[in-house]
Amino acid sequence: ALREKAERDALTQLFNKVTTEQLISDAVSANTEELSALLVLDLDNFKTINDTYGHLYGDAVLTKVGATLKSLFREKDIIGRIGGDEFMVVMRGCTDAAYLEQYCQKLIQVFQTAFHSYGLTLTCSIGIALSPSHAQSYHELFQYADQALYYSKATGKNRYTIYDPEDSAHLNHSMGISMVSNLIDSDSEPGMANDN
């Protein structure tokens, strides 16, 4: 019981950052053939919620986010809270990219409605990297997923981006490009979710 308590984030009861990173690192290195997806998920404009309603309310929202993520993913997936409003998930045994995209689209849609009872429309942005096709180490996977997350944020939020090695320069520099040009580009960007 003590060990489990030490592994968990007190607020959401998801794995904490240290445990999440260790579990994902072990999972990725142990299985180099099965397709897995690393998702880095960040709540959009969460600071505004804290500033408007206070930290206790913000904590209640984060608790609900934890419960929502647990309900959406499977027992074998790894789900953790790695920062204030940032979460990480490894989906093990993804059948293919199309399955992953459908799942991410569903995730975006659930978030759009899950917090209406709180009087909120809360959205999230997601960056995704794949193992083993993009990388076979946790640190590389996280780096690529994080780049994809920044691209999601820069192109309007409330969407997901799957890392594309052939477009990595674009992902790396997306924060420095004007928002207008990014929004134009995103219309044809593979792996982007629609805002509706």
- Indicate the percent of residues in helices: 40-55%
Radius of gyration: 16 Å
* Biggest β-sheet: strands ordered side by side in the sheet: 2-3-1-4-5
Order of helices and strands: HHEHHEEHEHEHH
Tell me the fraction of residues in β-strands, as a range: 5-15%
Mean of the pLDDT scores? 85
Distance between the termini: 43 Å
> Based on DSSP secondary structure assignment, what is the total number of beta strands?
5
Structural class: alpha+beta
Q: Low-confidence runs (pLDDT<50, min 5 residues)?
A: 173-196
Largest sheet, in brief, is: 5 strands, mixed
Q: Describe it for me?
A:
- This protein is of the alpha+beta class and 196 residues long.
- The protein is 48% helix and 15% strand.
- The chain contains 8 helices and 5 strands; from the N terminus they run H-H-E-H-H-E-E-H-E-H-E-H-H.
- The protein has helices spanning 2-7, 17-30, 46-53, 55-72, 97-114, 138-154, 168-173, 179-186, and strands spanning 36-43, 78-81, 86-91, 124-131, 160-162.
- A 5-stranded mixed beta sheet has the order 2-3-1-4-5, sandwiched between helices.
- Helix 3 (46-53) crosses helix 4.
- The longest helix is centred in the first third of the chain and has 18 residues, at 55-72.
